[in-house]
Structure prediction request, 474 residues.
Amino acid sequence: MSDFGTVASIAADVASGRASARAILEQHLVRIDTREGEVHAFNLVMRERALESAAEIDDRVKRGDNPGRLAGVPVALKDNMCTRGVDTTCSSRILEGWKPPYDATAVKKLAAEGAVFIGKTNLDEFAMGSSTENSAFGPTRNPLDTSRVPGGSSGGSAAAVAAGFAAGSLGSDTGGSIRQPAALCGLVGVKPTYGLVSRYGLVAFASSLDQIGPFTHTVEDAAILTEVIAGHDPMDSTSIPQPAPDLVGVLGAGVKGLRIGRVADLPKGADPDVLARLDAAFDALAEAGATIVDVRLPSLSFALTAYYLIAPAEASSNLARYDGVRYGKRVAAGDINTMYADTRESGFGDEVKRRIMLGTYALSAGYYDAYYGKALKVRRLIADDFARAYADADVILTPTSPSVAFRFGSKTDDPLAMYLCDIFTIPTNLAGHPAMSVPFGTGQDGMPVGVQVLAPTLGEATMFRAAAELERAV
Ligand code: GLN
Prediction:
């Protein structure tokens, strides 16, 4: 845990005047000066702007005004979230120099509660990847062992919190990009129900899957940040017309009487050290009074295939807008078609091009039904499987990632090996359900292992109850 305190403790200290937002910020900036060179969590450190916001918070406290639930809490933002007037690159050359004219809703909500934005974090280009090695600006290193990846695509957001550069951060999760890096860096990471958190101002990757969520050291901090960013937003047509749920209030409720699902036909692929921690998690919840029940999810083994058709299909459409006309980079050429082609050729990295080609192929006439249409049917089967499982279980536990953090370069030559990192996280995105990763001890080489808690649509409160119990047990 960060030696500078949690989201909850920092906000309480700043609001009560025990600490100034400025002093808290300076501690984090010193840590950044010491370690950012080796970690590379950030695309941009927003030093000046952060100092200004901290001063504003300290003024509010002095005047006796309410400084907000996140008073003076240093927060890092994944660099695919729009920040007004501040570079938002998606770690892609094609957006270099682009400054959005507006803030994402989640960003606005954090600011309204007194959060201090400390920087924009590195990611796999356009959030496509599981290791941050696909960033156009170089990889982020895992602060717990810099020879290893922090996971991805929100690797910078995870590393920033794990290294003590920020007390919390936001990431985005399309197929696991919050939960997997959280697991690999020993943090709590939450993917809320699709539609609980507004996607307005989140640069779109796969619009039917993308969700914003937090990284923190503690379950309580994750509950606070989720509460702050959740809630209806008329600017996002997929936003659920409901207020944010009460999550902090349920953390002490325990798991007595809860039915915890164990997936009897879990897809193979997880390492033994990870499965051992999962077993220990079931034992801990049973010890605390929960009942363990077996559930079956037979279509789970097709989730990865379906995702790698649906996500690229949506991405190929979403990324068509980067044409050298409206955003960032333009390569000058004699005619407009050459300008489009040259801009996209030099602006996108290999993985992004691979996804655009896969997606365009899957959507093309003659292949649409065989690939995209079929993938949508699998998506429906997965949702049906989950619906049956949740008739018997309140939450389900699985591993978050099949392995602990791996070493740089070990999967970069084989896209399929990289895609397999998401085998346990992708099904929930396809179903639209919430899921979160909770650190639960260590595996190989002392690296952290995350246990994933899954819940049905809007089951966040029960999910957080189980997560809080796991945290108490570990
Ligand atoms: N690793 C997955 C992918 O490459 C998930 C990414 C994400 O959740 N943004 O698509």
Summary: The radius of gyration is 21 Å. The chain has a mean pLDDT of 97. The longest helix spans residues 369-392.
